[in-house]
Design a protein that fits this description.
3 strands; alpha/beta; 4 helices
């Protein structure tokens, strides 16, 4: 968990400081602590709500690709489905529109 938090912070640092496609950013964001490649990242957009959620998912995928060189899949969730894809997942939206976030809060995971 600590590695993922650090990776996210490094990702945003690279974006904010204008450092794009550097070997350091690409290395830390595309491998885990052992140096093994991280699985594919998937961005999940909620099945309901404003168009802004889809725009946010695409914008996140664009930024991720600029820093890591790997574009994550952007998928719209199915209504009522709590199934997550394999690998790392980025959830877009609050518990009001994203059923997975709502379930995580209800179960005490968040």
């Amino acid at each position: 968990m600590k590695k993922k938090i650090i990776s996210i912070l490094v990702f945003f640092f690279c974006l904010l400081s204008g450092i794009q496609q550097t070997s350091y950013c690409k290395e830390i964001l595309t491998s885990d602590a052992t140096g093994t490649a991280i699985t594919k990242v998937t961005v999940l957009v909620p099945p309901t709500g404003e168009k802004a959620y889809g725009i946010a998912g695409d914008a996140f995928a664009d930024m991720w690709e600029k820093v890591t060189g790997q574009r994550p899949d952007v998928n719209h969730m199915e209504t009522g489905s709590l199934k997550l894809p394999e690998g790392d997942v980025i959830l877009i939206g609050s518990d009001a529109v994203n059923p997975v976030v709502h379930d995580f809060i209800r179960s005490g995971m968040l």
